[in-house]
Amino acid sequence: MTANKKKKSVQDLLNEANSQIETISIEKALHFSKNEDYVFVDLRDIRELKKSGKIPKSFSCPRGMLEFWIDTESPYHKEIFNQEKTFVFYCASGWRSALSTKTASEMGLENVCHIEGGFNSWIKNGGEVENLD
Q1: CB contact set of 103 (below 8 Å; sequence gap of 6+)
Q2: What does the pLDDT look like over 18-61, one tens digit per residue?
Q3: Residue 104 and residue 50: Cα distance in Å, rounded?
Q4: Per-residue confidence at 1, pLDDT binned at 50, 70, 90?
Q5: Per-residue pLDDT tens for 10-27?
Q6: Which of 132, 41, 29, 34 is nearest to 83 (CA)?
Q7: Hey, which residues does 54 pair with through a beta bridge?
């Protein structure tokens, strides 16, 4: 058995994604959250949502399902991704959302971005939080 001969590190993947996608500031995110032309997509898993809540009206899409829910030919496709809106991805700190934004763009979603600093930054800057019951 051979050892893992890493070709790209997580940091390499993040640097590549961040060089190709739009990252929005927390100030823009707070402003856009009130606009119906923006769909906020929470990529965190259900345990994270239950523990810390989410951005109000955001759509929960666990990171592991993103590609399946975007693809119109997938049996798991979600119609929310067929809207002509801007999709704002976020996770806890902005790493999963950077990779997800790149993936969504490669899959054909044209208006995609992610929040710099993720949900942690949202909280730190006084963003509203919707708690799960």
Answers
A1: 66, 67
A2: 999 999 999 999 999 999 999 999 999 999 999 999 999 999 99
A3: 25
A4: low
A5: 999 999 999 999 999 999
A6: 41
A7: 130
pLDDT at 2: 64
Of the candidates 94, 29, 37, 91, the one whose C-alpha atom is nearest the C-alpha of residue 64 is 91
Query: Which residues, at least 6 apart from 46, have a Cβ–Cβ distance to it below 8 Å?
Result: 60, 62
Q: How many CA atoms lie within 13 A of 42 on its CB side?
A: 23
Reported in sequence order, the residue ranges of 35-108 that DSSP labels E, i.e. its strands, are 38-42, 59-60, 86-90
| Burial category of 3 from C-beta neighbours within 10 Å (exposed 0-12, middle 13-18, buried 19 and up) | exposed
* Residues 20-124, CATH architecture: 3-Layer(aba) Sandwich (3.40)
Torsion angle, CA of 77/59/120/22, rounded to 10 degrees?
Answer: 60
Q: Do 129 and 55 form a contact (C-beta atoms < 8 A)?
A: yes
Q: CA-CA distance, 28 to 49, in Å (whole number)?
A: 22
- Sorted by where each begins, the domain ranges of the chain are 20-124
- The residue type of 6 is K
CA 20 to chain centre: 15
